[in-house]
Protein 1
Amino acid sequence: MNLLDIHQLDARHGLLQAVRGVSLSLKPGERLALVGANGAGKTTLLRTLAGIHPAAGGRVVFDGQDLSGHSAHQRAALGMALVPEGRRLFGSMTVAENLQVAASAGRRGPWHFDSVVEALPQLKPKLKALASALSGGQQQAVAIGRALMTNPRLLLLDEVSLGLSPAAVQGVYDSLARVVAMQTTLILVEQDLQRTFAFADRIVCLLEGRIVASGLTRELTREEVMDHYFGHRRQAPAPQEA
Ligand SMILES: Nc1ncnc2c1ncn2[C@@H]1O[C@H](COP(=O)(O)OP(=O)(O)OP(=O)(O)O)[C@@H](O)[C@H]1O
């Protein structure tokens, strides 16, 4: 059985339709990457799944349960966790407090304070530091840790490498490798196609809110994804003038 089934999902910002008839399914343990140019609708789609942004149409079924009318809090309790773009930590709280406060929103499971810190060892020396005093990579690790504390069955990760140094990005992806070893199902929004290809089982490309390409990572090339990314079609050569 699928963990997630999205049927014809629409989402709007006022008059602008940011997500248009998106349908996709996810099996337990799958790693799906959402790619697309700026403004393609990736963030809106993740936020709509998490219940932070309202759907304008369609249905989301999570583990057989229709989530229509479920609040973000109810979705978190069922096992959906979003790591938002920009991290949104509680800057005046310590790292440990940021992690602990998330536990109350979630489910019971393998993730607890000690296992999260073990998966994110860069946090160990920083547990008593204020979140606002951390580097970007460390803050990103806290944001991932905070999501893990809810014991998610589906982890939604929005641009986790945005604005980080190459070393910090590597640290975040090393942590994610430890997370997926726990069979966590996830949807990842990532601009770096090299990372996407190395990490995801399946890629879905959005353009202007619609799915324009979808396939197993091993069956796609980066060139094919880039073509869809910007809505380019390979054009036949122009006929030669006589
Ligand atoms: N709060 C908002 N108010 C109005 N329009 C918005 C809002 N947020 C996003 N949009 C618009 O909705 C569309 C989809 O934006 P969204 O942020 O979902 O795309 P994205 O693929 O995540 O882009 P990026 O990679 O730049 O984050 C864009 O046209 C964007 O301008």
Note: The radius of gyration is 19 Å.
Protein 2
Amino acid sequence: MSLLAVRGLNAGYGQGRVLHGIDLEVSLGGVTAVLGANGAGKTTLLRALCGMIARDGEIRFEGARIDRMRAEDIARLGMAHVPEGRGTFTSLTTEENLRLGGYTRRDKAEVGRDLERVYRYFPRLQERRTQQAGTLSGGEQQMLALGRALMLRPKLMLLDEPSFGLAPRIVQEMYGILRQINGEERVSVLVVEQNAALALDFADHVCLFETGRVVMTGPPDTLHGDESLRRAYLGY
Ligand SMILES: Nc1ncnc2c1ncn2[C@@H]1O[C@H](COP(=O)(O)OP(=O)(O)OP(=O)(O)O)[C@@H](O)[C@H]1O
């Protein structure tokens, strides 16, 4: 069953359309990777899904239409967006940032328990819980952004280039934690990645974007099995 099902999605900025009739799915408990060149519209896709920008077309989350809903209501349904650049509040501490992640939640009593859960996945954040977020390393800030998204108790996480600018060792560690979250909590993931090999290793479904259109979609083997796509995206 699809957790997220998108049909004929159009979106853009002002008069300029960036996405043209996008069809895309994320299965329940699954991981879909969106790959594409710079400017292909990947970030715009995530913004359109979470209600940050105007869009038309059909977006279904757990079967129900969400394409007319406001961003805050979509977040409350369980869709957490981790934007490019991570969006942490630099003058607040790690823990204050995490608590903000739960701000749309109605069950405030659970927030303390969820903090413990985030610290279990990201022990490094616990060590730095009173440290100002702006003074964290790049990798720690990315983990904080993921931890903050987890505070929403999401069913789906939208991740925009989580590996961007991070050292390979940190990227491996972070993807290890993402796998754990996906496996243990059945949190589904839609991830935009420049690092195609990394994304294909994690995903059960891949979607290639070119200039705002989907040019290929299917399991990772489809990409591995197509010589020209393999050369273009995986370099072998
Ligand atoms: N806020 C904005 N206002 C106007 N145009 C925008 C805005 N953000 C992005 N665009 C344009 O939309 C197009 C798609 O950009 P988008 O950031 O979605 O691509 P991307 O695939 O995520 O690229 P990258 O990998 O470089 O992040 C680009 O032509 C970009 O210039």
Note: The longest strand covers residues 2-13.
